[in-house]
Every structure is written in C-alpha cells, then in structure tokens.
Write the structure tokens for this entry.
Amino acid sequence: MWIFLAFLSACLLGFYDVFKKQSLQGNAVLPVLMINTSVCALFFLPLIVSSACGMSMVVPCGGWHEHALVLVKAVIVLSSWVCGYYAMKHLPLTIVGPINATRPVMTLVGALLIYGESLNLWQWAGVLLAIVSFFLLSRSGKKEGICFSHNGWICLLVIAAFLGAISGLYDKYLMAPVTEGGAGLNRFFVQAWYNQYQAVMMTIVMLLIWLPQRKRTSPFKWRWSILLISLFLTAADMAYFYALSCPGAMIAVVSMVRRGSVIVSFAFGAMLMKEKNLRSKAIDLFFVLLGMICLFIGSR
C-alpha cells in the first residue's frame, strides 16, 4: 500500500511542476507564490482551529520552542521555493525536472557529513551517476544558449535544490524521536504550521517588495493553473505522509520514488510545451533515473 502511495505522490508532484510552469510563464513570480502558500495555509487552518478547540487532535498543540523549530523550516522551504519559482519561470521544464531530481543525492551527502551516516556501493554509484547527469545536462543546456557556469537562473535552481535537501535533513531532525537525538515533533504539526508561517512571510514580502515595485516588473496575470499548484502539492504531501504512516514504510525508498515526478514533468515539457533538444535531454534523464534506481536499491 505504501509503495503505491509513494508512486501516487510522485505523479501528483509531476503535475505540480507542470502547473507551476504554466502559471509562471510571462507572469509575476511573487504573487503566484503568495497565492500558493496562502491556499495551502487555508487548507490546514480548519485543522489547527479544530484541534485548538478540542474538537480533534489531528494537529497537536506545541510550545514556543516547537513553533520556533517549525519557523526555521518555513524559512528554509520558502527560500527554496522563491529561488525555484524564479528559475522555473526562465528555464525549460526538461532541464528543471532532472536537476530537481538530484535532491536525494544532496540529501544523502548531507546525511554523510552531518549525521555521520555511511554510504554503501549502490548509493555511491547513485551519487556518481547524478554528477554525470548534471554534466550531461550542462552540455544539453549549451545547445539552447544556457551556460550552467554563468547562468543566474541555473544558480538559483541549484540553490533551490540545495535548500530543499537541507529541508529534508532538517525534517529528519524535527521528526526523529527525542531518544535518538531529534526534536520528536508530530508530522502534521510541522506540515500545518510551516504552511501558516510561509503564508505570513509571503504576505510581508508582497507588501514590502512586490507592491512598491509592481509597475517595474512583470505584471501579474490570473490563471486557474495557479490554484492547481496548491491542490496538487497538498494532495502529493498527503499521499506522502499517509505512505509514511503505513506499517513497514521506508522513508528513504518513499523519498526516492517521489523524485520520479521528473518523468511526468519531462513528458509534459516535451509534448505540450514543445521544448528543444529532447533526445539529448532524454539521455540525461536516463542517467538521473539510473542514479535513482541505484539509490533505491542501496537504501532498501
């Protein structure tokens, strides 16, 4: 059951990337991101209120220390999203997807450096294949005039992926039991409250940064795909958390499977958006997926 939910989450994440790309094309980035964070926050707000009133215990109450820890996560995730949204607007989806799919590799390397975990041969093979795929992607990008070493949007995308990996490592600390050195926070407490904090921070950013400069930047255009970003992201996260709650579920395997969302986004980039150099990018994607398979085997 849990592996099916992991694949479902991956599929939903793929559509999340597609709708994000459609919403950002020729559009103002910050308003799109604010709507996304606000809708996600509104989804969890009734659960928070009902739990606070004693009507349910889905989202347990927490003290100042717990909320401070979640606030740090919100800052990390929102920073990753801001960088990723700007990169997504200006880069082909068939390049964004494979680069984002290297996040599990960054997470594994981070676990090696921070938590002292050791990688087995399969995991090292996955890391090396990810490096090879990144090199091949840089060669494919040059055919479209995208120089990885001098392109600011590529830098933002890499920063977004790096921050995403940090968020994953931080999640491990937040939700690990206190007896194992973690904070022991409830998963739904973390998910519900970091969405609230993100919405508040994005509102402040809109008031202080975007509104005063809105006439000098890309105008905001309403598109229904903007709402679909929040819908598919929330559904993907719900499938993800449900998968983790199933008996015998392995978080490493679930995380790897979720990165399979790149197949969906790549297919839509090829078929609907008619992006270029698909043959060379398909080879790059093959190495990304092969690396994920190695990580999958090594993490079982």
In short: The chain has twelve helices and no strands. Residues 64-90 form the longest helix (27 residues).
